[in-house]
Design goal:
single chain, 79 residues, alpha+beta, YefM-like fold, three-stranded mixed β-sheet, 3 strands
């Protein structure tokens, strides 16, 4: 895990995001003291990704599906 000053973090924010995307954790310091950690976000699980795809498809179809309708579609897919 790398340490980087708050000033450098502000200056090179896009580079830090790229490092986090690659799986690296970075500690941000202010006057030599750790104040924050930038860590990679956890990967979405399969259920979350499937629900996201259903919502996108529903938006494309413009059928006006609500949360209850999405739940019914999910339950139908499990049968």
């Amino acid at each position: 895990m790398a340490d980087i000053s708050a000033y450098d973090a502000k200056t090179h924010w896009s580079r830090l995001l790229a490092r986090a995307r690659a799986g690296e954790s970075v500690t941000i310091t202010h006057r030599g003291r750790p104040v924050a950690r930038l860590v990679p976000a956890p990967a979405p699980d399969a259920g979350t990704a499937a629900l996201r795809r259903l919502r996108k498809r529903a938006a494309r179809l413009k059928t006006g599906l609500g949360p209850a309708d999405l739940r019914a579609l999910i339950d139908d897919g499990r049968r």
